[in-house]
């Protein structure tokens, strides 16, 4: 059974990343509520072939009665614990780009080529 815990450390990382990236400043709006958590699970997919470092989920309307967030970003700590502070910030930047918030609507921004192109152009193939 996996344990999940809210993380003030990740919130601090997110705050720093948001402040330093103009395209993320809209996430400071108090109407966009993001929770940050760690998991002790070493998450993988594709039959264990792909390591999952983190993910971002949209909280359903049904669960918002119990969860005070619109989005939850989870870092799977066994996969992240050896990342440098810089790489942890890069991963947070990537996850925050999945947070869609416009005109009062919340949505997940899917992966696309432009997203990875921007990351690779900025930090190279070994960005994580």
User: What Rg, in angstroms, do the CA atoms define?
Assistant: 14 Å
CATH-defined fold name: Zincin-like
Structural class: alpha+beta
Largest sheet properties: 4 strands, mixed
Total number of helices:
4
Percentage of residues in strands = 25-35%
Residues in helices, as a percent range: 25-40%
**Distance linking N and C termini:** 27 Å
CATH architecture: 2-Layer Sandwich
- Sheet with most strands: strand arrangement: 1-2-6-5
Estimate nothing, just give the exact number of structural domains. Answer: 1
What's the SSE pattern? EHEEEEEHHEEH
Rounded mean pLDDT score: 89
Total number of β-strand segments? 8
| CATH secondary-structure class | Alpha Beta
Uncertain ranges:
none
Which SSEs are present, and which pair or pack?
Blueprint: E1 4-6, H1 8-19, E2 34-39, E3 44-45, E4 50-51, E5 54-58, E6 71-76, H2 77-80, H3 85-96, E7 99-102, E8 105-108, H4 113-123
Parallel strand pairs: 2-6
Antiparallel strand pairs: 1-2, 3-4, 5-6, 7-8
Helix pairs in contact: 1-3
């Amino acid at each position: 059974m996996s344990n999940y815990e809210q993380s003030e450390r990740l919130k601090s990382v997110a705050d720093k990343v948001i402040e330093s990236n103009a395209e993320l400043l809209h996430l400071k709006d108090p109407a966009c509520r993001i929770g940050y958590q760690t998991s002790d699970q070493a998450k993988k997919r594709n039959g264990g072939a792909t390591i999952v470092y983190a993910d971002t989920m949209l909280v359903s309307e049904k669960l918002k009665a119990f969860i005070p967030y619109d989005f939850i970003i989870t870092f799977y700590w066994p996969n992240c614990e050896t990342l440098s502070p810089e790489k942890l910030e890069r991963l947070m930047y990537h996850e925050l780009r999945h947070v869609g918030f416009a005109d009062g609507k919340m949505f997940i921004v899917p992966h696309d080529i432009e997203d990875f192109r921007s990351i690779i152009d900025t930090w190279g193939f070994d960005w994580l």
